[in-house]
Specification:
The complex is a heterodimer of chains A (526) and B (163). The longest helix of chain A is centred in the last third of the chain and has 18 residues. Chain A folds into four domains: 98 residues, Glutaredoxin, CATH 3.40.30.10; 210 residues, 3-Layer(aba) Sandwich (Rossmann fold), CATH 3.40.50.11540; 91 residues, Roll (Ubiquitin-like (UB roll)); 94 residues, de novo design (two linked rop proteins) (Up-down Bundle). In chain A, the strands form four sheets. Chain A has a five-stranded mixed β-sheet with strand order 2-1-3-4-5, with helices on one face. In chain A, helix 6 packs across helix 13, helix 7 runs antiparallel to helix 8 and helix 17 packs antiparallel against helix 21. Chain A has 526 residues and is of the alpha/beta class. Chain A is built from 22 helices and 16 strands. Chain B is built from seven helices and five strands; from the N terminus they run ααααβααββββα. In chain B, a hairpin with a 2-residue loop joins strand 4 and strand 5. The relative contact order of chain B is 0.11. Classes of the chains: A alpha/beta (526), B alpha+beta (163).
Chain lengths: 526, 163
């Protein structure tokens, strides 16, 4: 009887040596006459433990990590194939607090199964959502999603079901389903982890969307910076098509749906939905004027369901277990769960899927264990490069769309990037403007010109040139960008800039914020 | 677009024709087509622009506009190895700027330049999705995490080994 050993093929695991670890396991097992079956799973999301090796035992899966190739002989010596103790042993995987305390609805299978095994997918609840959808009419599916309270996980948090309803009700000879997998925000990697760790989930979610709105064609727009994810998803597409989960008659239902994978080309702006559509059509990624919204006039001018990858990935469980099941997680108008991504200067970085409502502090310290460098965490950027920088006084804010909007911040795609006290916030503010200048599509003036002027003004402030006047100028410029930009790139770049200025003025050569006032400080004009 | 079509080598023409055949019939084929050309040649040679424009019934300005809009598409040959250092926020929080300074000094080039021996093109990139194991870099499509200066030197050193 061979023993099953798991080593992730997730690219973050590969980035820290999982391939060498897996080779060492194969060679050492062969040399010692041990029979093992090596499964290349996705990552459980405990990136700080990668490469994390798991062994299937009678008592469940036992985790060891981080396992470098050089640790492998020692693991065999200790008898890890029977789940024996070793200094790298972390106990039963499911009992590791970081994982045990999560609420994994979307990421239920990621890291558990072989990502490209249809048998595994089926055995762990796969296709149940799609089968449920096939038994129901389009309007019925849409209303289930409406009632679940699911909101767009890309950042804008628009109610998904309402968007789908618009597409369903718009008459057209052709409709499309498009997945935004242009995960360009620094600090985010949940799209990538689904593509590499549970790719059939996205196929299932998009097929359900197709049934819901009457679309037979879909596209996945994937960023070029994710070659491993591209390979994994392309393989999953072939497998699903051959097995009849995609194609002319999905699961023999007579309903057709098929998907095409398209690669971006390194433009951050193509994560903006209308720029993404332009890019899919083979054009420069220039933002479109709205209205019309893509739900009415989207890809090639046709009604289009355009959602973030994690939104589609959340749908199958809603169809399988019902809207109420999903809606019962969360707080206020933020229903369900969000896969948070803990990144940057953090001791235990990784993926934490939780219902909305836990605080940033719980995420940073209970899960993250504080900074990686051991220094105090001074600032946290939530929601990618367009998200606000939060000071310690705001760490008790619950992770909820409205609570974050209330302090002039946003959850975005759930990325959380920690910085220790060596960070220079004036430099981060400058970087935000510079990034906007690099990535602006150039269509509107506030973003195209404003970002460059922003860099210059911050430079002058830092040099101490007419500081008060330049602060005024920067605020005025930010106001123009917020209110005059066509899309979120120009419209939200002021968020990291002004939050840095408001919470950390001392980094700009200004007097520090008095402690008593800090907690109630809301970024103005946002 | 000054170069005459006659300058296009046979190999180049072949690559472009193969790419055209591979992407024929796709809706909105331009991006997949440009990727297919660049995969074969490492860049998109200027003479290919006219051929692509003709095949897709676009103007050369349209095609040129798309090539220059996207950071990935290049119009001249890169080095034999492509080293992309992440400079986005999560990597900055773990010292990516100092790593970039080290990389530039080690290779003797700035971002978006190629070493004199044609071995390495160094690029800045904004997020590789390895934000929980920052700082990261990608070398010839392979991701590396928790990259120290020593690790950088090791990886670069291995690239320059003959064979």
């Amino acid at each position: 009887m061979s023993i099953t050993v798991f080593v992730p093929r997730d690219s973050a695991a590969l980035a820290v040596g999982a391939e060498a670890t897996s080779q060492a396991l194969i060679h050492t097992a062969a040399a010692r006459g041990e029979e093992i079956r090596l499964v290349r799973n996705g990552s459980r999301g405990l990136i700080w433990l990668e490469p994390m090796v798991e062994v299937a035992t009678a008592a469940g899966r036992i985790a060891y990590g981080p396992v470098a190739a050089a640790d492998v002989p020692g693991l065999f010596d200790a008898g890890f194939l029977t789940g024996a103790k070793h200094e790298l042993m972390r106990g039963p995987t499911e009992e590791i607090p970081y994982l045990k305390n999560q609420e994994r609805l979307t990421f239920a299978r990621v890291g558990v199964t072989d990502p490209l095994s249809l048998e595994d997918y089926e055995a762990h609840g796969g296709w149940r959502g799609l089968r449920a959808a096939l038994a129901r009419g389009p309007a019925d599916i849409v209303e289930e999603v409406v009632r679940s309270g699911l909101r767009g996980r890309g950042g804008a948090a628009f109610p998904t079901g309402i968007k789908w309803r618009t597409v369903l009700q718009t008459e057209a000879d052709q409709k499309y389903v498009v997945c935004n997998a242009d995960e360009g925000d620094s600090g985010t990697f949940s799209d990538r982890m689904v593509l590499e760790g549970d790719p059939f989930l996205l196929i299932e979610g998009m097929a359900i969307a197709g049934l819901a709105v009457g679309a037979a064609r879909g596209y996945v727009y994937l960023r070029s910076e994710y070659p491993d994810a591209e390979r994994a998803f392309a393989a999953a597409l072939r497998i699903a098509r051959e097995a009849g989960y995609l194609g002319a008659s999905i699961l023999g239902s007579g309903r057709s749906f098929d998907l095409e994978l398209r690669r971006g080309a390194g433009a951050y702006i193509c994560g903006e939905e209308t720029a993404l559509l332009e890019s899919l059509e083979g054009k420069r990624g220039m933002v479109r004027y709205r209205p019309p919204v893509p739900a009415v006039k989207g890809l090639f001018g046709k009604p289009t369901v355009l959602n973030n990858l994690v939104t589609f990935a959340a749908v199958p469980v809603i169809l399988e277990r019902g809207a109420e099941f999903y809606r019962d997680y969360g707080m206020g108008r933020s229903r369900g769960t969000l896969p948070f991504q803990l990144a940057g200067n953090i001791q235990r970085g990784g993926l934490v899927e939780k219902a909305f409502g836990l605080t940033l502090r719980e995420l940073l310290y209970d899960y993250g264990g504080g900074s990686a460098t051991g220094r105090p965490i001074r600032a946290v950027q939530v929601g990618g490069p367009l998200g606000a920088y939060l000071p310690e006084s705001q760490f008790d804010t619950p992770l909820d769309y409205e609570a974050f909007a209330g302090i002039g911040a946003m959850l975005g795609h759930g990325g959380v990037v920690a910085f220790d006290d060596t960070v220079d916030m004036a430099k981060m503010a400058r970087f935000a403007m510079q990034f906007c200048a690099i990535e602006s599509c150039g269509k509107c003036t506030p973003c195209r010109i404003g970002s460059t002027r922003g860099v210059e003004v911050i430079d002058r402030m830092v040099l101490g040139e007419r500081r008060e006047a330049n602060v005024e100028l920067l605020r005025d410029l930010c106001d123009t960008m917020v209110h005059g930009s066509l899309c979120a790139l120009g419209g939200l770049t002021p968020s990291p800039v002004l939050s840095a200025l408001n919470h950390f003025p001392e980094d700009f050569g200004m007097p520090a914020v008095p402690k008593a006032r800090a907690a109630s400080c809301v970024t103005p004009s946002l | 677009m000054g170069e005459a079509k006659s300058n296009v080598s046979m190999a180049m023409e072949d690559a472009v024709e193969q790419a055209l055949a591979e992407t024929q019939g796709l809706d909105g084929a331009l991006m997949p087509l440009l990727h297919a050309i660049q995969e074969r040649l490492g860049y998109i040679p200027t003479p290919a622009v006219a051929r692509v424009a003709h095949a897709l019934n676009l103007s050369r300005a349209d095609v040129h506009g798309v090539i220059t809009f996207y950071h990935d598409f290049r119009t001249s040959a890169p080095g034999r190895h492509l080293v992309r250092l992440c400079q986005a926020e999560a990597c900055q929080s773990m010292g990516s700027e100092a790593l970039a300074e080290h990389a530039k000094a080690r290779l003797g080039v700035d971002f978006h330049h190629t070493t004199a021996d044609g071995a390495v093109t160094l690029e800045a990139v904004y997020c590789l999705g390895g934000c929980a194991c920052s700082p990261t870099m990608m070398v010839d499509g392979r991701l590396y995490g928790r990259v120290s200066r020593e690790r950088f030197d090791e990886v670069i050193g291995a690239l320059e080994q003959p064979g």
